[in-house]
Amino acid sequence: MKSKFKYILSSCVLALSMTACDINRLPETSISDATFWRSETDLIAANNYLYTFIPGFNNEDVWSDDAIGLTSNSISDGSRLAPSTDGNYTTPYQLIRAANNIVEKAPRAAATTSQAVIDRYLGEARFFRAWGYFSLVQKYGDVPLILKTLDDSSPELTEAASPREKIFDQIYQDLDFAASKLPTMSALGTANYGRISNTAALAFKARVALFEGTRSKFHSYGDYKKHLTLAAAAAKAVIDSRQHSLYANYFNLFQYEGEGFQNKENIIVKQYGVSLTDRVLTHTYYRGTIENGNKNPTKSLVDSYLMSDGLPITKSPLYKAPVKSTDVFTNRDDRLNQTVMKAGDPYIFTKKVFDVAVLVFQKTGFCFRKFSNIDDWNNQASSIDRPILRYAEVLLTYAEAKYELDEAISDADLDLAINPLRTRGKIAKLSNAFVTANGLNMREELRRERRVELAQEGHRYWDLIRWKAAEIELPKPILGNYFFKSEFGTTTTVNLTPDNYILVTAANFRRFDPAKDYLWPLPLNEISLNPNLKQNPNW
């Protein structure tokens, strides 16, 4: 069921799109600042603007080895240059400015509003400020840390970048405040589903701390144990809250059936329109990105799914070389069937099923299945929500943080955090004895579990960055499915490897320079405006 908050938020988006040409303007600026900030209603109106910054559907997976689009991208082919301007840099600062404005002015409502209510909306604002800063430091490293609203004469406009450690400390402070002041998911209820809860703040803190902990460990800087300890503690706090649980049906997680308060797995979501008759905010992710081939799964991703006995395809006696395309899915982790289409799955039009002979769009011979919905395809619009942070990620974060702290993990923690995911995927459980008996590597199996559980959800590129594995994995060729000639046909010309797999992109068209590509280039205009802002190395 669609929430009341979704309707309010959609109306806010519509109002902003009709009245605000300059995104720097806050929603309250059409009203005198002296007459605003007087009630809880004013605080809600100001905070609703922050939710418009929650990212929608995108094709960022093509930066990684999980997916490829119809055309090359400058991140994958190594042709990227330092841009003059970049929304990846400016948009988070617009969010930060809006959040700073609320932090400064929300206390003005004290005459009519209790401190607890004010603190709640301050908690939301500080959550989003943390969100903005993590987005920046994840890409650019050191950036200016601005904690107040600025005007044209503010000296902070030419302030040097703050060290990333200082920025992460501020992110943790903001998220701790948010976690202590925000309501639980249960307290939010159906009417306010979609607003940030206290467990959302904790779950996001776990994501942030895992990123920095593992990045500092594998890139050899800072105190990685500090961050990993925080990651494990924040994830465990979410687990112990009992506010969340895994949704029973993995495929329906990404359909209308998985929406709303009844799904306890979704912690942060990007909400879309109330229905197709309330098209304030919709998307065409399935028709415009998946079905059109702008994000195709790779052989590398498909091969990473285990057999049902819990072993990789290179070790399992269950694996047989496929003789037809559907054999790829036989005796595999059930999440493969729910994430990647096979011949016979519903595809487009009312009754049409997926036909593997679609290489003109599905260049790898594979097609993603999450969020596929024939009704949405026919309507050319969808209001299926995008899950941004799921409870499954919290479990994966807990397990990885615990392992990387001591390079060991107990069977009890595996049963707590990993095996519920494997049970949903209908594969054998993971244990230390299983790893030893089968010559596996625990770190690789934990990373594999993360890759398949979160496939198509925009995590893989950043995982390779923090593990310092991008320089190894990203320059590899992009391969597709085995070329089943009787099914794929000969209408579309394809390149093949000597062992008959579709060669989509050769290795010489894939580049990653470890001397510079682990950080993104700062926009040249920002450096021109601030002489104390220094470009990242080798850009």
Can you put this structure into words, describing what you see?
By secondary structure, the chain is mainly alpha-helical. 43% of the residues lie in helices and 4% in strands. It contains 22 helices and 6 strands. The chain has helices at residues 4-19, 40-51, 74-77, 87-105, 115-140, 164-181, 185-188, 198-219, 224-241, 285-290, 299-304, 334-339, 374-379, 391-406, 411-417, 419-424, 432-437, 442-453, 460-466, 470-473, 485-488, 524-529; strands at 67-68, 266-270, 296-297, 386-390, 478-482, 501-505. The protein has a two-stranded antiparallel ribbon. A two-stranded antiparallel ribbon has the order 2-4. Helix 8 (198-219) runs parallel beside helix 14 (391-406) and helix 14 runs antiparallel to helix 18. The chain is globular, with a radius of gyration of 24 Å. It starts with a helix and ends in a 10-residue tail after the last helix. Mean pLDDT is 93; it is low at 13-29.
